Amino acid sequence: MSEIPLPPWRRAVAKRPRAAKAPLSQDQIVDAGLRIVMAEGIDAVSMRRVAAAFDTGASSLYAHVANKEELLQLMFDRICGEVHTPEPEPARWQEQIKEMARDSHAVMSRYNNLARAALATVPTGPNALRVSEAMLAIMLSAGMPPQVAAWSLDRLFLYIVADAYENSLHMENMRPGLETREYFEGFVTQLRDFYGDLPADRFPNIRAHATTLTSGDGDQRFEFGLDMLVDGLARYLP
Amino acid sequence: MSEIPLPPWRRAVAKRPRAAKAPLSQDQIVDAGLRIVMAEGIDAVSMRRVAAAFDTGASSLYAHVANKEELLQLMFDRICGEVHTPEPEPARWQEQIKEMARDSHAVMSRYNNLARAALATVPTGPNALRVSEAMLAIMLSAGMPPQVAAWSLDRLFLYIVADAYENSLHMENMRPGLETREYFEGFVTQLRDFYGDLPADRFPNIRAHATTLTSGDGDQRFEFGLDMLVDGLARYLP
DNA sequence: TCTACCGACGAACACCGTTCGAGTCAAGTA
DNA sequence: TACTTGACTCGAACGGTGTTCGTCGGTAGA
Prior knowledge:
Helix content of chain A: 55-70%
Order of helices and strands of chain A: HHHHHHHHHHH
Strand content of chain A: under 5%
Oligomer: homodimer
Shape of chain A: flat
Largest interface: A-B, 70 and 70 residues
Radius of gyration of chain A: 21 Å
């Protein structure tokens, strides 16, 4: 497998040949971080907490990882490996784009709010690149102009990541006892009543459409925005 | 001006009648927070830092603000007051939607990464509601089905906020010495070279279109995504 | 066998959000 | 007028955070 050069702005912290046999490794650290993020969310991921998984102090991690930000980036790229990348079939490019978007969205939702790591910088890890390459291939093979494909890729991932991140932030406010479903229903009910009680002189439309505004779950809304984007994209086909 | 009821899930911390004349007030606290966010970014906004503007300790703030999260929400709603809300002109609804989107985006970009506060919860402050109401009015007056208008509103704001937030996170990584322009150019150059040096067997499309992928500044990309969304939206008009 | 040197790791630094409890002072009441 | 009440201020403290520093130990190469 060919080598990917390191992105130039990342400190080459791990490129020195490790001399002693190490009880710690970057992979293990990323594993531990992912275990914590799945169990307790990203706010539980602290350097001390990750180090505690190896019965050591936080400072031990800094030999393998430049800082917390880099650790989160590595964790994000790891989960990008779970996204499937189909072979392009130009005839059904729209459906393929949507499939990849749904898959990416599902993966990022599975790992709580790790999506923020993707918002913070341009993902340059091998797995993230693999996903981008596949999406680009689908659009180009469908005959999309390169500039349109390039920018669409950017905007689509922004949308996917932002939606996953927003959902994860909402989950964070959830009381630990409640189920996701009943928390969500209670939230929607409160919001609908709040909209319905707004003064009619200043907010006639929000008030009148309180029910419509609060209808639809996260998946329906994600799908609706995805349709908007892909429909808007299809207009650029020659 | 008619009263907006408090959203039910917010602790009614400020609804008690304040008896003594207060040297501190919620408005002043929000002002101080905004001053800090403009000067040094949202990460510089801490309860101690805000309190220091009044020569006091952090605990003094908790009489006027439930916690930091509420303070950020209040700050966000304050800046929403700077967004212009035009009267609907059905004939040019698309342009009006884009104008409001650009205006909202510009306001949120002006105040560094305060946009995250908007991602965290559904904005229910008076100014945020005013903006939503105006956008809803434009779409409904153009003949858009209510359900489409409702979900579009949600998706459009997600897009606006996410783009502003992403940009602000990039700004955060900037070295303090550099100008925004030269930092951005250096970043793009590095990224283009990185893409161009990728192995051709695994990433042929990214490698071949390295220049195209990295072309266009933040405004162009925002505008492109906005076009995608609004074009996709226009298809729902009867 | 000796000597570098890399990695582990405890301690410390400078922060953070929030809580607690004592003190202060104006307004309402007897 | 005297007393009580209660909101507000605010120093101190608690339990966290990311990161740095300096020491120490053990392995690899000479």
